[in-house]
């Protein structure tokens, strides 16, 4: 077939694209592990609270390297697909090799597609995104390592082969498409790119200049008459009205909200450092703190502040954003804003802090 004989289907092309695809997948995998560790820290692990934008950067890299991998993967498949139709010469070895490629391609497609649906906040499936996306990431990474090891001789040969004009044109198109995909979306997390990122899935258009993921109405939150913030610990508890919280020493800090979906935005938050609040209530400050919201059913109605975050003076129970009282959608009467913390753990509509035993 003529298509099969195009000079683009050559190791010279697939090795060059493969390098960049490998870098994109590698970054995506490592930052994915970081995100998982930040959101579900195993007992031995402490996610650092500084720099304050650490999670914003790792999650931005995660989502953008995933976006870059989409055109790279398509171009890579185009460069190599005729080989999948070659007649096998070594029956068992070729069958195993093709099986490993099948696993790799399926896992890679699954990761990129499920990630895209996630940033679009669309879940047209029955599985739980977080666990499945994480598990398939390990499958893709394992299959990729096997693939690179098996193909090493061919990769070497590819780099030794010159890219002629037609191959160079194909490579140029691939780099252009990859750059365009990243630029069209990077504005979700890189402010200077907001104007050119036509496909950015979140803009700072929400109330108080910040995007909103879940509105108060969607969460079914209504602040009851006589709302109080309860601080509880083994053996005691204390309650604060909003006026009492506002009368404590306030701290203002510029901190980002960095959603796991890749978008992020910085704002100026004002509130009571959680540590000071615990001291004012008479509770210990060296234990994890369970944060609960007025929301009843949501998956993110509660979160756990690890001791490192409790101790950090920039971990705020915020009452204000950008100089205004929090709007209902940003968590009125108060919300958690902590440095370098995944957005899903920046609990809104807080009603109870519980120092763990
Ligand atoms: N109670 C509660 N808090 C929540 C959520 C939620 O669904 N319920 N969503 C979280 C998510 S996923 C993000 S990214 C941030 C977004 O904060 P914002 O809506 O004020 O921008 O809030 C977090 N706090
Ligand atoms: Mo989020």
TrEMBL record:
<keyword id="KW-0472">Membrane</keyword>
<dbReference type="InterPro" id="IPR000572">
    <property type="entry name" value="OxRdtase_Mopterin-bd_dom"/>
</dbReference>
<feature type="transmembrane region" description="Helical">
    <location>
        <begin position="61"/>
        <end position="81"/>
    </location>
</feature>
<keyword id="KW-1133">Transmembrane helix</keyword>
<feature type="domain" description="Oxidoreductase molybdopterin-binding">
    <location>
        <begin position="224"/>
        <end position="356"/>
    </location>
</feature>
<protein>
    <submittedName>
        <fullName>Molybdopterin-dependent oxidoreductase</fullName>
    </submittedName>
</protein>
<dbReference type="InterPro" id="IPR008335">
    <property type="entry name" value="Mopterin_OxRdtase_euk"/>
</dbReference>
<feature type="transmembrane region" description="Helical">
    <location>
        <begin position="173"/>
        <end position="193"/>
    </location>
</feature>
<dbReference type="InterPro" id="IPR016174">
    <property type="entry name" value="Di-haem_cyt_TM"/>
</dbReference>
<feature type="transmembrane region" description="Helical">
    <location>
        <begin position="101"/>
        <end position="120"/>
    </location>
</feature>
<feature type="transmembrane region" description="Helical">
    <location>
        <begin position="132"/>
        <end position="152"/>
    </location>
</feature>
<dbReference type="Pfam" id="PF00174">
    <property type="entry name" value="Oxidored_molyb"/>
</dbReference>
<keyword id="KW-0812">Transmembrane</keyword>
<dbReference type="InterPro" id="IPR036374">
    <property type="entry name" value="OxRdtase_Mopterin-bd_sf"/>
</dbReference>
């Amino acid at each position: 077939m003529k298509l099969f004989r195009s000079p683009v289907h050559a190791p010279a092309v697939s090795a060059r694209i493969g390098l960049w695809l490998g870098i994109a997948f590698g970054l995506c995998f490592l930052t994915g592990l970081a995100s998982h560790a930040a959101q579900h820290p195993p007992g031995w692990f402490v996610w650092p609270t500084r720099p304050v934008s650490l999670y914003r950067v790792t999650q931005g890299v995660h989502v953008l390297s995933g976006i870059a991998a989409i055109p790279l993967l398509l171009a890579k498949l185009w460069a190599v697909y005729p080989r999948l139709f070659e007649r096998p010469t070594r029956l068992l070895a070729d069958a195993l090799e093709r099986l490993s490629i099948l696993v790799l391609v399926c896992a890679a497609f699954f990761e990129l597609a499920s990630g895209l649906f996630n940033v679009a906040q669309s879940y047209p499936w029955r599985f739980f995104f977080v666990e499945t996306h994480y598990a398939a990431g390990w499958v893709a990474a394992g299959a990729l390592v096997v693939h690179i090891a098996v193909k090493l001789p061919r990769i070497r040969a590819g780099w030794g082969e010159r890219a002629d004009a037609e191959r160079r044109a194909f490579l140029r198109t691939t780099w252009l498409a990859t750059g365009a995909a990243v630029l069209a979306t990077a504005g979700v997390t890189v402010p200077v790119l907001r104007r050119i990122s036509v496909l950015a899935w979140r803009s700072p258009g929400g109330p108080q200049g910040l995007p909103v993921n879940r509105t108060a109405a969607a969460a079914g939150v209504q602040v009851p008459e006589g709302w109080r913030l309860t601080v509880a610990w083994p053996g005691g508890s204390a309650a604060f009205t909003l006026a009492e919280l506002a009368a404590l020493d306030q701290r203002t800090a510029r901190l980002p909200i960095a959603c796991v979906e890749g978008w992020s935005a910085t704002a100026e938050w004002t509130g009571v450092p959680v540590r000071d609040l615990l001291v004012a209530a008479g509770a210990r400050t060296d234990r994890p703190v369970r944060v609960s919201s007025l929301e009843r059913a949501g998956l993110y109605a509660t979160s756990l502040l690890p001791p490192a975050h409790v101790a950090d003076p920039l971990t705020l129970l915020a009452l204000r954003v950008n100089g205004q009282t929090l709007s209902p959608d940003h968590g009125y009467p108060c919300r958690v804003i902590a440095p370098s913390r995944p957005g899903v753990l920046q609990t809104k509509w807080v009603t109870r802090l519980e120092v763990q035993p």
